[in-house]
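From the shared-data thread, chain only:
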Amino acid sequence: MKFRVARHTDRLEAVAAFYRDRIGLPEFGRFVDHDGYDGVFLDIPGTGSHLEFTAGVDHPAPKPHPESVLVLYFDTQEELEAIAARVMDHEVTPANPYWLRNGRAFADPDGYEVLLAAQRPPLPRPTGDTRGNVPGDDLVYEGARVFDAMGPVVCPLGHAASAALVAVSHVNISSAARSSIP
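Structure, as tokens:
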């Protein structure tokens, strides 16, 4: 399975440059005047996931919401800080207090938040009742999804796990995949 998040923008070149040149996601394609749309495809290395930004037609771009965020997980704090240094002038305070403690937030040219977080260590598979809290653990296991008190956490589904959640996209970028980003 592949996963792509697409978003319309009124600032296609500025948004593409932010994610490509500042965040470091490789551009692997673009189109011009396809049924009135222009667009850019950006790869999230090692994940099978992509971002697509489009512009055109006669409708405006959606307005950002403080809970509509893109979360990028990195294997190390050093990887996270290298990206943060390139987007430092765009740092914002996230609306969700969880991200104040567990990540760094930056606004893209449209005002949408990009959260950078270091990956947590893999979580053990729960035993016993998985419908509620596991004794001695502050995590709630719900099927293949794992939640802590403030929201989803990285699931132990292997490197480059990505999950589309309502209004939040979480993507894990492994060290191996990061080596292909400038």
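The chain has one domain: 3-57+64-178.
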